[in-house]
């Protein structure tokens, strides 16, 4: 099922700014923000809070649930904008199965930048000690379709404008192909 407006996943390691950027995209381009962290089962939160990285099995049900949430938002006629680390291609493919035509915005930054940001972020269950494991699991989506890679250190407004421009170019290209 395709959404009237394509669904977007804002992805990257902890600290890259997924929530801030997704919120700005929703305000700038329209859409319903889905905060992926809010859908983690308590066992995942407990594990990360203890400094233990999640594995593929921990993420499997969570990714299915995120796909279902995007489907529900799309069926209501609104663009889903999901924040999700989506570190591995297999995770992104799980989400793509739920939402054909799914678009990804990859917020890229260095391990040191991510660590600094996570250390400065109060009250989140993801400790800075897990940054290394996130980069170890990361399979950057450089060669994947419908993916935009952005420098996560750029200002939020500039990133939201870049995504909005990309969405418009993709929509124009899609219309041109069907004409």
TrEMBL record:
Highest taxon listed in the record's lineage: Bacteria
Give me the reactions it catalyses. D-gluconate + ATP = 6-phospho-D-gluconate + ADP + H(+)
The enzyme's E.C. designation: 2.7.1.12
What pathway, per the record?
A: Carbohydrate acid metabolism
Matching entries from InterPro entries are given as:
P-loop_NTPase, Therm_gnt_kin
Q: Give yes or no: UniProt keyword Cell cycle.
A: no
What SUPFAM superfamilies does the record point to?
P-loop containing nucleoside triphosphate hydrolases (SSF52540)
Keywords tagged on the record: ATP-binding, Kinase, Nucleotide-binding, Transferase
* EC class: transferase
Annotated Gene3D superfamilies: P-loop containing nucleotide triphosphate hydrolases (3.40.50.300)
> Does this UniProt record's set of keywords contain Zinc-finger?
no
Q: Which PANTHER family match?
A: GLUCONOKINASE-RELATED (PTHR43442)
Instruction: Report the family membership.
Output: Belongs to the gluconokinase GntK/GntV family.
Q: List the protein's name.
A: Gluconokinase
């Amino acid at each position: 099922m395709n959404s009237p407006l394509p669904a977007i996943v804002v992805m990257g390691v902890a600290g890259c700014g997924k929530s801030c950027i997704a919120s700005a995209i929703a305000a700038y381009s329209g859409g319903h923000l889905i905060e992926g962290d809010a859908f983690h089962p308590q066992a995942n939160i407990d594990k990360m809070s203890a400094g233990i990285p999640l594995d593929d099995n921990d993420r499997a049900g969570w990714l299915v649930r995120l796909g279902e949430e995007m489907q529900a938002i799309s069926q209501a006629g609104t663009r889903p904008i999901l924040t999700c680390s989506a570190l591995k291609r297999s995770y992104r493919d799980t989400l793509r199965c739920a939402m054909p035509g799914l678009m990804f915005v990859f917020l890229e930054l260095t391990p040191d930048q991510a660590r600094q940001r996570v250390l400065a972020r109060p009250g989140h269950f993801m400790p800075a000690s897990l940054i290394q494991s996130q980069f170890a699991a990361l399979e950057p989506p450089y060669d994947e379709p419908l993916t935009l890679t952005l420098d996560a250190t750029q200002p939020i407004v500039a990133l939201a404008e870049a995504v909005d421009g990309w969405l418009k170019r993709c929509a124009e290209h899609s219309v041109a192909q069907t004409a």
